[in-house]
Design brief:
With about 625 residues, the protein is of the alpha/beta class. It is built from 22 helices and 13 strands.
Amino acid sequence: MISLTLFAQLKLEFTDCFLEDCSSFTGDESMHFAYYYVPENRDNPDSRMLRISVLIMKSNADQPAVDPVIFLNGGPGAITLNIVARFKDHYLRDERDFIFFDYRGVGLSDPDFCEDLQMEILELLSADMTAEEFKQKKTKLTLSCFEELKQEGLELDRYNSTEAILDLEELRNLLDVQEWNLYSISYGTRIAQAYMKNHPEGLRSVILDSPVPVNFPLLGSQLDAYRNSLNELFTYCKNNPICHERFPLLEDQYFRAIELLKDDPLTLYSSDIPVGEVIVNDYLAHLAFHQLLYVRDFYPALPWLFEALERRDKVVFSNMIEALFERGQNIMHAMYMIMSYYDYGLLMDFQQADESDPLKNALIYFDADELVYSTIDFIQLDSSIIEPFYSDIPTLILTGTHDPITPPDFGRRVQKYLTEAYWLDFPGVGHGVSLGPDCARDITAEFVSNPSVKPDQACIAELVENPIDWLSDIYYNPHIANFSKNVVINRSPVIIGSLLSLLLLFLISLVRGLVYRFKSNKVELAPFIRRRNTYFQLTALLSVVFFALLFWYIYYTVDNHTILILLGLVNESRWIFFLVYFILLGMAFSLNWYIQSYYQSSGFDKVFYGLMMFVFFIVAVLILLFKMFP
């Protein structure tokens, strides 16, 4: 069998990197970007052709296995190629090539399915309106998109899971792959199951991570899944001494804070949010926390976020809503609606919560879709696609106890019709289990290496003992998130330039001091000159040490607790902020001795220490602006 890439060169249109940001792939010869073409309507010989975008990440192995892994993203309508950078070091690349693509109508594949619709919906979420008004306006936006697509001549009934698996099968044949391994997450598991049913001959193994059953009323089940996730979080906290001691009434605290937003929403302003002004009401807060519950690493910080909500801390929630907007833009809402209706339109069961239910209208974002589904008339529903099927393909089913969208019960339902499936439920884990704890990663890698052998589950028992690493205390300072964002994401020239100048000037002063110290014919410096030099060097040294430690603790916080950065840092970092007092005091003494020595200083010293004093001033402004105090 000839190599995957060599054969594909004969069939695919290889090209340069076509991502919005190619910086992570520059000069990396293991990344192969390509296009292939499929008909929109396979029953029409004159159908328009759609360009599908593909990325092949070559394996890190010298001799990779012949059966690659192909990733099926969820949503439906979630964009894959915009997030592939995070898979560069994925553990499944150790033995196999890794293939990524955007489904038809999604992301970088044809056609453009109302690319701006999701942002327009997020803008609605930001406005001050009732839940019913939001439902009506979201429905109007979505239906307008459908009409626009129809006017462009698109056959909307051809954008579904059936066509998706045919596109996949065409790619497998183009790559001359006899068998491959499906790695699916969330709604991608629905596509994977359709593939298992219709093209089992092309499959070596299947991973169904956070699965959705084919024969369950998925549309309308979101509220129950969210309720289950919240209850699991509250229960885990109550049963843990650290969390319960710090947050003895966590559930009451959460719903009390949400209730306050019904009558008195928070108004936020941020230049990093496209709409500028955001009204945080009860259902926007619910949606934000619903999304945070997807990720296990966020759980230790969630009680602190609930507390910040009750305190109505606008800085924290500005940061959180910015993250929600960024996450929300990674899905094509029109494709979400069309594909989900095609697969589950015959099983819809939107259940309305009672007026007394604290989760009434909590997920109005999803409830609004019922109005759209009721008007769709361009899709012919097929009862055969919701019939259970039986398969003996080796399959790994992964669920998390805290998953807010595909609860563990979904795994049990899917396992019923897969005779060679291993279902593993991970305590204290949310959505996308295989991207979570090391235990899940090891099991997933072991399964792909040898799918016919039941994976070793011993590490799951260890997770049961300590599923969530709760935080008894933190260094609370949400302004640190803004500082981090300005340095790491926005690359602020003022901040970065000032810190680099501080380091450079400190090194120069240090070198000058060492040169003077070992100079044979040196002239004795006046006492006030020596004091000036000493205070400047010590202040610069303390400042360099402080910011070095600050960046280390920022990295440590993000690496270990991720979302905690919205609130501040791990509590172990608190001590470094006491250095700030010595830095500010040193700046005051430095200014004093700079003034006293000015007329006795050389021209070079006047400029050099004047520059240092200017940088000190900017550092002091940063300390005050971002409130870097204990």
